[in-house]
Amino acid sequence: MVDQLAAQWLPAYGHGVVRAPVLDGLADRGAVFDAAYCASPLCAPSRAALMCGRRASELGVYDNAAELPASVPTLAHHLRAAGYHTCLSGKMHFVGPDQLHGFEQRLTTDVYPATLDWTPDWTRPVADRLPWYHSVEAVLTPGRTAASMQTDYDDEVAFHAVRHVRELARSGRDRPFLLVVSFTNPHDPWEVPPRYWDLYDPDSISLPAVPLMPFEEADPHSRRLRQMSAIDEAGLTDEQILLARHGYYAAISYVDERIGEVLSALRDAGLSENTVIVFTADHGEFLGERGLWYKMSFLEPSARVPLFVSGPGVAPGHRVTAPMSLVDLVPTLCELTGVDSGGVRTDGASLASLLADGPAGEHVPVVCEHHAEGVNAPAAMIRSGRWKLIVCRDDPDQLYDLADDPLELTNLAGDPEHAGAVERLRGELSARLDLRAIEERVLESQRERRLVARALSMGAVAAWDYQPFVDASTQYVRTREDLYHLQRLARLDAR
User: Fold this and answer.
1) Catalytic residue at 485?
2) pLDDT tens, 98-148?
3) Least packed by Cβ within 10 Å: which of 97, 219, 380, 446?
4) Which of 133, 125, 288, 298 lies closest to 213 in space, CA to CA?
5) Cβ neighbours for 426, distance < 8 A, ≥ 6 positions apart
6) Active-site residue flag, 43
7) Residue 136 and residue 244: Cα distance in Å, rounded?
8) CB atoms within 10 A of CB 348
9) What is the pLDDT of residue 480?
10) d(Cα 426, Cα 433) in Å, to the nearest integer?
């Protein structure tokens, strides 16, 4: 799993400049989903929904400072209860004191805080920026770097994941495993070592297909996002936009190589043939399209994510065009592994039948929601077939025909000819989300969390951030046993 990667920036989805050979190979060996959507275009809500197979609002994970209850089953719980060893290396943006949520092992700390401090405040104007909001700074400061927080973290994630794979192979146990490897790249800021930066000729990088729209012509939510990040105030030049895109492309190539290290370890350990491999991202990245950056929108660059699935029973090179949601992954992986979910409800539907060649049919409509900064009321999207409807209280509806208008330039919601489509999609959305009830719950949750966060910042502070524990007494040479015997136990021959 990676962070903030839209499907459209990968060669597997038609991008002609980005270099991601590892992901290209993974896509060739498995099924590629052409219309996969995150459950929420923000880190913590999207990841909680993915891990639990339930919508973020059902879980109460509305934003990046909302706690996932420890009693809610995750994919790790389902597989662990069935006998799997479950392990996490990298980011999952769990908030609260439970930093495992069913994982038996966690190999690294998280890159972001586990506190309630990033709680939005819907009682304040959207343009009233809080200090932790995204700003345009990351767009202004990409560069070739010897080291950065993002790459330091992902180097550590890959190192521990590779080592864990080797330990699984050396153990000789028959116990199956779940390993989630979650990188923070290509999330901003785009600060990347020179050898990845230098993969790209600046002349090959193009400006956005849809340039910055006049402020008054943009939809209300896009205007709010521009105000939140002070995009218009920055007055970005073409050169600055191209440089930021260069950094983002380089970050994709960097994380592609880290993914390759993990997949190579799996192959060298002899574990790849009977392992299901899933690749995805928590949400997308605008990268200057329409003048927008980052995420928090239901437009395609923000909400549509890559999804590849390979492994036993999956047809190589298979393309799935039916829209689907990342909440579908829990029921899918439970079916593929033969794990009984024990009657635990999910909001997703298994994709297992779509992974082989043959007619796929239409999947259930996809719902995406956003209840964090950038709005003062719940916002939601539904995708059904070629149609996408976006709604938010006090905003005009947006209806797009993605078959004829993939860049979402023409809002058809006000066209009488499409009134039936709007009514149908609104009905389907209302059957899944009660936006008025969600608004009441969000406001109450924000009030409670702001109070708790303020209290917990005073006096003695107890950190919730995960602290990896390594028992050095069992590593390397620590006993009186034969030195060469210990070295033989640690050896894993190449295949």
Assistant:
1) no
2) 999 999 999 999 999 999 999 999 999 888 888 888 889 889 999 999 999
3) 97
4) 288
5) 389, 391, 397
6) yes
7) 11
8) 23
9) 62
10) 10
315-365 tens-digit pLDDT: 899 999 999 999 999 999 999 999 998 889 999 999 998 987 655 556 689
What is the per-residue pLDDT for 359?
55
- Cβ atoms of 446 and 119 within 8 Å: the answer is yes
Q: Rounded to an integer, what distance in angstroms lies between the CA atom of residue 95 and that of residue 68?
A: 7
Spatial separation of the C-alpha atoms in residues 128 and 373, rounded to whole Å: 10
Within the chain, which residues score under 70 in pLDDT? 357-363, 472-484, 486-488, 490-495
Longest dimension (CA), the chain: 83
Cβ-based neighbours of 152, under 8 Å, separated by 6 or more: none
What is the C-alpha to C-alpha distance for residues 165 and 263, in angstroms, rounded to an integer?
9
Q: Residue 174: its pLDDT value, please?
A: 82
Q: CA 234 to CA 320: how far, in whole Å?
A: 40
Considering the candidates 85, 93, 160, 187, report the single residue annotated as catalytic.
Answer: 93
- Give yes or no for a contact between 178 and 85, defined as CB atoms under 8 angstroms apart: yes
pTM summary value: 0.94
**pLDDT digits 0-9 by tens, 82-93:** 999 999 999 999
Catalytic pick among 38, 43, 52, 334: 43
Q: Where do the domains of the chain lie, and which CATH numbers do they carry?
A: 7-354+459-489 (3.40.720.10)
Query: Alpha-carbon distance 333 to 241, whole Å?
Result: 39
